[in-house]
Amino acid sequence: MSLYLIPVTLASYLIGSIPFGVLVSRILANTDITRRGSGNIGAANVARELGLKWGLVTLMLDLLKGFVPMCLFYQYSDSFPNYGVFIVSLSPLLGHQFSLFRGFHGGKGVSTALGIFLAISPVSAGTAVCVFILAVYFTDFVSLGSIIGACSMPLILSLFGGSKYVILGSLIMCALICIKHKDNISRLLKGKERKWRQGRSR
């Protein structure tokens, strides 16, 4: 194993651990997003509860948590073993979902995963975003769109020639994102999931 892989992996995890949804809601909107709506710190809950503007800010910051570490990795990828992309790509997502700064709790990781795949394969990431948009448009459930988009990524990467390590990483990310959506899946099955157009909670 390359000696550089350990510090890069740890740094990627720490970057992923930054709870931008919490910081945005407290510093910029003077509220605690963990006590609003679903309590999730991700962009969808921030947008629904605090407005689209803050949701987009959170989305971009969470996306960058995945994008920046992968871009830095690819700049020096010659120094890493082939499987390095698998390890480093998982680190920001694990940081977001199991944040060191929130007692190893965190968000669902959709935006951070998108940032990771934008760096790895922009075309694949863009295709998955289209899948997500279509799913949300036809169902009005952001959670379902996120699950479908995440599950489509391994297939999309395969179609666009992703390496075995990237595809394996995407399968694990898909599983982690689905696990984080277990409560949403339960509500969807019971017909109790909140639709996007229902707006803010009172």
Description:
The model has no long low-confidence stretch (mean pLDDT 91). The longest helix is centred in the first third of the chain and has 24 residues. The protein is globular. It has one domain. The protein is built from 10 helices and no strands. The protein is mainly α and 202 residues long.
List keywords for this structure.
mainly alpha; 202 residues
Secondary structure: helix percent:
55-70%
Shape assignment: globular
Model regions low in confidence, pLDDT < 50 over at least 5 residues: none
Number of domains: 1
The counted number of beta strands is: 0
Number of helices: 10
Order of helices and strands: HHHHHHHHHH
The proportion of residues in beta strands is under 5%
Span between termini = 52 Å
Short structural summary:
This protein is mostly helical. It has ten helices and no strands. The chain has one domain.
